[in-house]
Amino acid sequence: MLQLTARVPGRPLGWIAVGAIALLATAPAVWGQTGKKTPATAEKPAGGTLDRIKTAGSLKLGYRTDARPFSFEEAGKPTGYSVDLCQALGESVKRQLGRTDLKVEWVPITADNQLTAVARHDVDVVCAAVTVTLKRREQVDFSTPIFPGGVGAVVRSDSPKRLRNILNGEAQEYTPTWRAVALNILREQVFSAVPGTTAEAWVKQKGQEFDVQFILAPVQSYEAGIQAVLAGKAGAFFAERAILLDAVRRHPKTDDLLVLDRQYTYERLALPIGRGDDDFRLLVDRSLSQQYESTGYEGTYTKWFGKPNEKSEVFFRWNALPE
Q1: CB-based burial of residue 3 (10 Å sphere; 0-12 exposed, 13-18 middle, 19+ buried)?
Q2: What does DSSP assign to residue 182?
């Protein structure tokens, strides 16, 4: 049973029955990055998305300002990997509608409202880093996957070796008492995650599967999570691993931070779109598939994540749909 108790004035911290996160590292991976949201109840428009875009004369693309390298703001303009994909999508929509004068409007969104923005037709597509989950599909549809994501963790580079080994799945070296040692170490920890992300949901899920107490402290952004680790307020910050790698690489105190080798989950990131609109989803998937198969796509990927490895190439070959 989950018990919450206020630990800091104005900021509840969850005492969570969480399992041997020794087993955080050894438990089977799940597809899962953002939490449960109440489905929006917006009325379905009379026409489809393309009809609405044509009538309005504009395509509305939602973007996150804080999810680099997928979607962020630089010099007052949206940029990032997902933004690049959506810019090409905008050209596809113009061709489909025969409207070279079609406006492409970029609308800033947050982790809290990105799905409801689609469901309520405030935006036509979310260009960010959103994991496909069954719960989210009650609220929105998704494009073909755009990236093989997953939960990772960042710690201080001088964090205790035993803690790093536990989180990396190497606690077995403490046998035969490794489990007891791991539990005792974890009971002393504060971990952080951004509320509403699948990283937070995954840590809570592991907490219900196993049985050890530690504090899960919410942070409001990726930067806040990293600062909590640097300040010693959190032993580890759990989030989308690709975002952590980028953030640590660019951080002024990069030598003080370490992204663990372990990837705890394997998640399909995709573009959220309105439910029940097969014509628009077909256009989005066709645009993405054409980009994956284009000669310039490797450059787009390399720009944000470095040269793709064999696993990444296989991922995009599987998700590029033939005509």
Answers
A1: exposed
A2: H
Domain stop point among 259, 278, 301: 259
pLDDT, tens digit, for every residue of 117-160? 999 999 999 999 999 999 999 999 999 999 999 999 999 999 99
Q: Within a domain: residue 44?
A: no
Give the integer Cα–Cα distance in Å for 291 and 320: 8
Domain count, the chain: 2
Considering the domain architecture, whether residues 104 and 253 belong to the same structural domain is answered as: no
Which positions ≥6 away from 261 have C-beta within 8 Å? 168
Domain hosting 184: range is 3-34+150-259
pLDDT confidence bin for 37, thresholds 50/70/90: very low
CA distance 148 to 70: 12
Cβ-contact 164, 206 below 8 angstroms: no
Is residue 172 a part of any domain in this protein? yes
**Judgement on whether residues 232 and 157 belong to the same structural domain of the protein:** yes
**Continuous H helices in the chain:** 22-26, 49-56, 81-97, 114-119, 161-167, 178-187, 198-209, 222-230, 241-250, 278-292, 297-305, 310-319
> Which of 242, 259, 276 is the last residue in one of the domains?
259
CA distance 165 to 182: 10
Give Cα 95 to chain centroid, integer Å: 30
Neighbours of 134 (CB within 10 A): 8
Over residues 299-307, the mean pLDDT reads 95
Structural domain contains residue 41:
no
The pLDDT-based confidence of 185 (bands split at 50, 70, 90) is: confident
- Do 173 and 255 share a domain, yes or no? yes
Q: Are both 185 and 199 inside the same structural domain?
A: yes
Lowest-confidence range among 4-13, 35-44, 224-233, 297-306? 4-13
CATH code for position 175:
3.40.190.10
Task: Give the per-residue pLDDT at 176.
Answer: 52
- What is the pLDDT at residue 213? 74
Q: Mean pLDDT lowest for which of 196-205, 234-243, 259-268, 294-303?
A: 196-205
